[in-house]
Amino acid sequence: MADTLISVDLSESPHTNENVHNRWHPDIPLAVWVEPGDDFKIETYDWTGGQIKNNDDAADVRDVELEQVHYLSGPIGVKGAEPGDLLIVEILDIGAKEEMNWGFNGFFSKQNGGGFLTEHFPEAQKSIWDFHGMFTSSRHVPGVKYAGLIHPGLIGCLPDRKMLDMWNSREKALFDTNPDRTPPLAALPNTQSAHMGKLKGDERDKAAAEGARTVPPREHGGNCDIKDLSRGCKIYFPVYVDGAGLSMGDLHFSQGDGEITFCGAIEMAGWLHIKVDLIKDGVSKYGVKNPIFKPSPITPKYDDYLIFEGISVDETGTQHYLDVHVAYRQACLNAIEYLKKFGYTGAQAYAILGTAPVQGHISGVVDIPNACATLWLPTDIFDFDIKLGKDGPKKYLDGSIDIPLAPDL
Amino acid sequence: MADTLISVDLSESPHTNENVHNRWHPDIPLAVWVEPGDDFKIETYDWTGGQIKNNDDAADVRDVELEQVHYLSGPIGVKGAEPGDLLIVEILDIGAKEEMNWGFNGFFSKQNGGGFLTEHFPEAQKSIWDFHGMFTSSRHVPGVKYAGLIHPGLIGCLPDRKMLDMWNSREKALFDTNPDRTPPLAALPNTQSAHMGKLKGDERDKAAAEGARTVPPREHGGNCDIKDLSRGCKIYFPVYVDGAGLSMGDLHFSQGDGEITFCGAIEMAGWLHIKVDLIKDGVSKYGVKNPIFKPSPITPKYDDYLIFEGISVDETGTQHYLDVHVAYRQACLNAIEYLKKFGYTGAQAYAILGTAPVQGHISGVVDIPNACATLWLPTDIFDFDIKLGKDGPKKYLDGSIDIPLAPDL
Amino acid sequence: MADTLISVDLSESPHTNENVHNRWHPDIPLAVWVEPGDDFKIETYDWTGGQIKNNDDAADVRDVELEQVHYLSGPIGVKGAEPGDLLIVEILDIGAKEEMNWGFNGFFSKQNGGGFLTEHFPEAQKSIWDFHGMFTSSRHVPGVKYAGLIHPGLIGCLPDRKMLDMWNSREKALFDTNPDRTPPLAALPNTQSAHMGKLKGDERDKAAAEGARTVPPREHGGNCDIKDLSRGCKIYFPVYVDGAGLSMGDLHFSQGDGEITFCGAIEMAGWLHIKVDLIKDGVSKYGVKNPIFKPSPITPKYDDYLIFEGISVDETGTQHYLDVHVAYRQACLNAIEYLKKFGYTGAQAYAILGTAPVQGHISGVVDIPNACATLWLPTDIFDFDIKLGKDGPKKYLDGSIDIPLAPDL
Amino acid sequence: MADTLISVDLSESPHTNENVHNRWHPDIPLAVWVEPGDDFKIETYDWTGGQIKNNDDAADVRDVELEQVHYLSGPIGVKGAEPGDLLIVEILDIGAKEEMNWGFNGFFSKQNGGGFLTEHFPEAQKSIWDFHGMFTSSRHVPGVKYAGLIHPGLIGCLPDRKMLDMWNSREKALFDTNPDRTPPLAALPNTQSAHMGKLKGDERDKAAAEGARTVPPREHGGNCDIKDLSRGCKIYFPVYVDGAGLSMGDLHFSQGDGEITFCGAIEMAGWLHIKVDLIKDGVSKYGVKNPIFKPSPITPKYDDYLIFEGISVDETGTQHYLDVHVAYRQACLNAIEYLKKFGYTGAQAYAILGTAPVQGHISGVVDIPNACATLWLPTDIFDFDIKLGKDGPKKYLDGSIDIPLAPDL
Fold it and tell me: Which InterPro entries does this chain map to (chains A, B, C, D) (predicted)?
């Protein structure tokens, strides 16, 4: 068996674990070292570090401290890795921690992060998803069961100083255009609850003050939340610092394209079994700016879909110019309306779109002024027939079950 | 064999054909009538009505008159269809006209429509794609061959007066925010080259002045340019007028998600074999706003991909807020840089992304401030090995062939 | 458009067409010549040459003259092809003849050919399948619709004299072990209704007396009836004579693995668009004995199945030793019993297994004394839910429709 | 986490474990009881009970005691199950035992079981396959790597007395037709090394003398060796005794259709996570004789193949009548010859066909006198390009590595 190089103890705070960090900074010391060609296991906390519990009360989602996210395991040093190399990461397997055989999905309160449809679902809600081997289902969302397309929502290498500065300055510039917005336009460096791995003392404080938040995806990959970056994938990451400094976390049992619920996919603690290797000078050889990856030969084959279209006219009827974000939102809202006809509440339908392996396609981006996006809902995840027929929909759910909601205080 | 209800003669101007129109307006008389349950064939012009020729000169793309687009065949009346019904359209087959066994792809000049990457490719270029049964290849883009995922770029029902007015007013409002922009923010009603089917005289002139352009996708579907809306699909269209008034055109032999080259996919003249039926009162039964469809059981199974990530930081380094359009543009630019390492020119790489069955996924839309989009490039369409290796890329092309360019005059 | 090199007139007897033949013999003159790299079209009769009609009477199936089969179009000469080469045939497209937009399936009388389940279905029956673009359905078998996986049941190159002699002698040896058997153990050369293409006079008579029947698959490919050898495939055929002499016919709109109904798949007249090329000396380079092929990138993706097992204990309870033929027969019989629970007659169920894209897998061939075979029945071809549930099957069919039967005279 | 109801200790003989047995007999006491709807884990030995070691010496394969096989875990009692019910088994997950992260494949000596190609590979050989997460590769077979399609080779319910008697009598009848054959025609009851679970004393001895060997698949399923009966499947088993008595074992990490190497697939010890339920009276409701199953939504998508044809003319040139076994053997031999052109030894090629997810299709079974079978070899499992080209094959292997062989003593 491959060795476990980084372990996590879910009964302990991630802040007690020196091989964990929650900010990006080149000064974070490498936690462990491996050779190119090695394969090994890495354990991770769930992204919130255990803030969300397996119960029927969404108060923990409402009250989550987002300054803590995301707890990453690493950085892993790869011997011989130098800036300009490509780090090859092959995901050989991923799984849940035995002691946490479930995951959570939720919508943040609009006052604390919000989400893609926060105008429609402004208060905190939470659903719990149990894992049954390779499948998942939820006591809060009856009638659906999915095979997991397990993946790390967040994985990438440490930035160098120059890249870190660039991230901070461009995000600050955006933030400053509307500093009072809720939710904010960007998550800027913040020392609150910063965890800088093995870094201590003044160096730690300085790095915490500068360290980029882990929230957005960036040039190094990071929090891409790509559902297809799953076990069996081979990923090519740009290297910026000696040793590469690969970190990862934010495991998802299953997610839809867009991770529209934000909190998030089906979030879980777990482990990855990975193999690393190098393409020396690969960044210039292949002209790479962001990571490139090859998909897995094993993925759930949900091949029958209902496909919902959306265009870039928003809910108020206002026309936007080729705005795919607006178009995808409309496609999602259209799917939610459809699912409600079968008895789901809006929140349940939203949770399905956030957790099931739905596809979100950029279908047309040139036909002024409307972008067209499509939301692909797999029909085989439902216990009942979700397709259209001449007789109209048959209600499958009686409305007795809903996703717990925790009103803003 | 199914009857051909609408024929087109490619040697004649579409304006001579009363069963063709290029504007959306409720007053356009229904061209033909069918019963629910009927199947039949409809021929169509290419979207430009024959303006682009099979030669090595892009002047026709540069000089295209966009006021003419799109020439649609219809409107087809379906007996018994009433506002609020869903019109089921099953695409039983699609093909090219025997006398035009080729298609074209191009980039418009930035001064005349532009495209997704118009800042990078500001001048008109054109590639010609020959059809070899179910495959296509181009003398201007060596090294690739695709199986066609043939589809109508544009299909939908006539709007009623209320919907037409809504379209016109919201698009006008957007246009007015920057009326001098090139390309414009919206294509407003324009009598130049308007073709209103059987409508004549004053009624024709009035409708031409009000008729919505066919450029954008809208509530009725229309110019969605969804590559997966291909033969074998079943589509459910909202009906707004008695008889439904279904029109279609803008056939594509193959296209990538986004139709990023705008002119367009691999554009062709051809025919569709369709079957129609009704779900009475289906709009309210299923809560439908935009069309819904089920994908075909037969599609090209290109299952191995290189997946390129892009985030919503634009080419200048400016940070945008969850802008999927910017993110997808970066993913496309990343793929183009990659393909150039194998010897393709930028224009050839752009043409591949516009014409091959690439997927564009909305991968993350909540991780502020960056959206993440992915561009999936199928590896099996290339005659050579396009994957990454330790030795770096091997140039497959010697640069002797490029896509013809017609400089702005 | 590609040229049609061989045309057939379905209103005329195939015996009037010199570019058609129904025996394999090296002396049959090449009908047309092409160059390596050429693509072109070839029309074909249905395998019986039009003996079966679109009506509700199976008498034509009962009375079919099997000495006539199979009418092949060719042989096509490929310039430069020599014995020992591999002939590459790419199937660019296949379709039905416009004037015959339907096909037939049947079971022969046990007295005239029989079939896989002839003990269970000893008399002639026939179903007619209409083509609706890429789909087919039958007025004799309600409740199913398939996308076609169109393919030539029969394609291959002329044998040389040595190979012909080998075929004739080994098949004669088998036949002689039970010469009175009905149906016979092998179809030996037979001058009755032999059609030798352009060959005339004594040479014709001599070749007709020696010519191998087209019934079995052999080293050259021939009547393989492989459902996956469909449009989009690339096939590598051994060449035995100068010019290769490629012939083809027996087109099928759709077929299950095994072609268990024998008459046959959904049999049709039609055309192929193919491209040919050569690998010089390919037979020894690659150690090829029988043809090798690569599957198409476009095939129907029926991915959900009910899988029926069968073992090599026959219907009487007798144990056979690792006999896959017996095992597959049991799997088929098991599927038929299952389908009868939903209201199908046995004959309808048998017709479905013969015509739908069912898979037949050799699942275990070493576990003495039982072979295990599996029959994969796609669930998505049914208009209703064919899966198992706690409540038991719901009859979908009322038994009012069956497949016409023509009793033996 | 689900409870592990049956554990195995690989360092102990399976004969010390009362929840294991290696014969089928209705008198074997149920090992554990569960309720319908329960999910739980079951551990299993490898099929030989640990006789084969991870080394480079095939002597253990040569000297294997086949009277021991197969060690099954069970029988599991399901409360309420009665004869005539269908037992639903959902395979939620399968994995290797941590302490045995490898598997073996081998060919038995012809004198001790042989295999599908025993005439060509008459002596014992063995290859060891290491597991790397979801992938496997072998130090004895360079150049290939597969994603596992893990499955139990053997699973089924206890027979009742009547079924047991039927098995024994029909297999004895076959055996008696050639009692001296090596390998034998059937594996008859044999007390040597029989392990009857909890059964003790005279009852044990009597049952051991009557108990059916586990070698062949039978009506109850049993040793079907169906590669697609993998994690994610749902299987419907006939129930013959009160409590059903479900047993399972013979786990495979990966296998080709036919399990042609007999010893066997990639054989492993491991665990299954399953869920059970009942369809009362399901046998008659659905007309079930052998198990039926639905495939998993997650399987390796190896979609590009080289497909080899074989016909029922054997290696000596003798014609057989519609014998799929002979035809598949020819297809396999054809694939082996092809692979040798790339540098593999025959034994390596044979091992690949036995362990990789190759498909074996029954392609034509009615075209007298030849059956046609096809062997589908996935091209993406190879580290190099295995496809045909004009230049001929390039040797990838230098012949320095082969599969260990242990000559007969």
Answer: FmdA_AmdA, FormamaseFmdA
